[in-house]
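sorry for the late reply, my laptop died twice this morning and i had to redo everyting from scratch. anyway the thing you sent over, i finally got around to it. pasting the sequence first so we're on the same page, its 128 residues, then the predicted structure underneath. double check i copied it right bc i was rushing
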Amino acid sequence: MRLAEFLTRVQARGEYRSQEEAEHVSEAVLWTLATRITPEEADELAARLPAPLDEALHRDRGCAESFGREEFLRRVAQQTGARPRTAEWDAGAVLSTVADSVSGGELDGLLARLPATYSELFGRPGPD
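ok and here's the structure:
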């Protein structure tokens, strides 16, 4: 997927005023995701995303940290200056677009390594 198409989808899903806002939110969500997954997983995902968004998955990351959905959303909120509820909306807009950008098998593999509560952010059914 090309950058303009990715940002158009994020903009529509997140109801952002501009593609610049959609890009800022996308970078924040992807950077936060990069801290949660291994560098190898981040590299695989980055290969499927358009530049310059792929760079957000490579920023200053060490070992993957283990944290749940609420901490993920708190960190997104911290990056964007939003409230946690808004961060959930932001994460969903970006990660559901990421899900559109990768194959089903790749997404299933990524989701299998994250807590089940993350699946809804990617537009997939959550745990029962």
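The chain has a mean pLDDT of 92.
thats about all i looked at so far, will dig more tmrw
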